[in-house]
Write a structure and sequence with these properties.
The protein is an all-alpha fold. It is built from 10 helices and no strands.
Length: 212
Amino acid sequence: MTAGPEGTAPQRQFPTLLEQMGGVPGIVASTIPVAVFVVANIVFELQAAIVSAVVAGVAVTVWRIARKQALQPAVSGLLGVAIAAFIASRTGEARGFYLPGLIASATFGLAFLVSVLVRRPLAGVIWHGINGDGQGWRRNPALLRAYTWASLLWTLVFASRVVLQGLLYDANEETWLGVARLAMGYPLTGLALLFTIWAVRRATRTPAPAAG
């Protein structure tokens, strides 16, 4: 595929990123272990919820491998479920299952914020890094501005998760914490990703200034 103009993103980037996440079916399937844990924890006891989540995680991984999807997201998803289940088992509290997600959200939110402050918006660094396009986009003011706004939105997404889910975690509201984890997971991620795509496509229609 022929690359776009200097500092712009080839059109193929947008579906490629989605494909690397396993496509829409893969993204939806990734929420299954958490949903299983939430329901099983309400209906049964904690240990049954832990076992159910791990079994669901293994099943999703096998399903994604059978469909010949990228192995790394499948293995990462299973590892994440295993770590969350281990923490819940060790603490004896269902809220422990959601602790890794909270820590990850805080880490990513801080990383996106810092990247904006140092004028290397992480949305652009990740996007072009995944697609092997280099970092020439930073010389295009329109793209730099688009990725800055996108990175600020990602910061807001992660920060909102930390604040709301953190409050529920401290209050030991296990059921509502699980519901919030699902509701603020891929739905918010999808919205942020759509905004990133829209902002970048809009910016690529703005010609980069001539060097000199």
